[in-house]
Design brief:
Length: 394
């Protein structure tokens, strides 16, 4: 009996252990896979666009704004496009009509005014502006974008208004105390401000011909006496491009009076004033010929040229007090496509503006007046950088 119980116990133990191992192995091999989600609702990812009230007011304001173009503005708002009108809901159309006092289909827009720009040659032109339509004054445009804007009066040439920045060109080997009159520009600017309605400035006026700001200056001024004008190829090329694109150059061969020394009490006249063929005269002519090539054709400016009547009247030609004893009594010029681009002077005109010699005092008023003529003519002639026919005051 004992042996039978032992055998049955052993069999029960072995069967239990085997069954446990089989269950353990089955659990290891079980994998659970989650079923894919079921979408019960489809989503609309795009909606039909509608213009808000603010957007529509902006569209209407833009449509009513004056246009400076050679076209006629549409007289019906449907010209803005069927798609735009279709995107506006009926409710929004009613709101628009109540807000503006008229239905969009009945709105009438005025014909845009076209400002005529005179002069067909390609120049560095500023945009056409009708100062009356834009409710602007000349002072409002003095924001640094323009170097000069003047508005002439067709009925009175001296009723010219505007502002102007004077630009003096400097170059290597130029002695500021010999090859320029340091007080010439300040005195001329002061005279312009005191005797005309132009507002002139002298700040930031000295540049070299290699400076990119050259192409923004409507008027440049170069003087010389004994300096060697050793200009680079870039400077010469820039000068030519500047003049071809509406720039204006006044170059003056100056000859300062000789101050008294020792026991002397009077200033001595300079024997080189008013002469053709001096150092500056020869060098500057050669530079202009290199810069302009075949276009560098010098001609004598006649006394009836508009230059002599642009503001003050000079019936007898330019003032000659600074060239007493010389062999030149006229100015020369270079025209590019019919526009006077260069005024070349051997007459020492700048002497009136800045030389402290008492001898200059007698003719200083007329000399300064001629400086005004130079600037006014340069700024108002058609085809220049500051082409004033683009600005209207009606």
């Amino acid at each position: 009996m004992f042996i039978s119980v032992l055998m049955h116990g052993a069999a029960f133990y072995i069967s239990t252990r085997l069954a446990g191992r089989a269950a353990e192995q089955e659990m290891i091999h079980i994998r659970f896979v989650a079923p894919p989600p079921i979408l019960k609702k489809s989503f609309e990812l795009a909606k039909r666009p509608e213009l808000s009230e603010v957007q529509m007011e902006f569209v209407l304001a833009q449509a009513q704004a004056p246009q400076l173009a050679d076209v006629t503005v549409a007289t019906d708002i449907t010209a803005l496009g069927a798609d735009l009108i279709g995107a506006i809901s009926p409710t929004m159309r009613e709101v628009m009509g109540a807000y503006s006092g008229a239905k969009p289909e009945e709105m009438q827009l005025e014909t845009a005014e076209v400002v005529d720009i005179a002069g067909g040659s390609p120049t560095l032109m500023q945009e056409a502006v009708d100062l009356k339509t834009e409710l602007l004054s000349v002072e409002d445009l003095d924001i640094g974008r323009y170097k000069a804007i003047v508005i002439p009066d067709p009925e009175n040439k001296r009723n010219i208004r505007g502002f102007f920045n004077m630009t003096l060109v400097t170059y290597k080997f130029q002695d500021p105390d010999v090859d320029t009159y340091p007080m010439a520009i300040p005195n001329l600017i002061r005279y312009i401000n005191d005797n005309t309605k132009l507002r002139a400035r002298i700040e930031g006026t000295k540049i070299e011909l290699s400076d990119p700001r050259l192409f923004e200056a409507p008027f440049i001024y170069i003087t010389g006496y004994t300096a060697v004008m050793d200009l680079s190829e870039t400077e010469i090329k820039n000068l030519g491009e500047y003049l071809r694109n509406g720039g204006f150059l006044f170059c003056d061969d100056i000859a300062p009076q000789i101050p008294p020394t020792g026991t002397e009490k009077e200033w001595k006249p300079n024997p080189q004033r008013g002469l053709r063929g001096t150092a500056f005269d020869s060098q500057m002519r050669a530079i202009l010929k290199r810069a302009l090539g075949a276009e560098a054709k010098f001609f004598r400016i006649p006394n009836d040229h508009p230059l002599f009547h642009s503001f003050y009247d000079f019936d007898d030609g330019p003032p000659l007090g600074g060239a007493t004893g010389g062999n030149v009594d006229y100015l020369e010029g270079i025209e590019i496509r019919g526009r006077l681009a260069v005024v070349f002077s051997d007459l020492n005109i700048s002497w009136y503006w800045g030389d402290p010699c008492p001898e200059a005092q007698a003719g200083r008023e007329r000399g300064l007046q001629f400086g005004v003529n130079l600037i006014v003519y340069a700024l108002t002639q058609p085809g220049g950088i500051a082409n004033i026919s683009q600005y209207t005051m009606r």
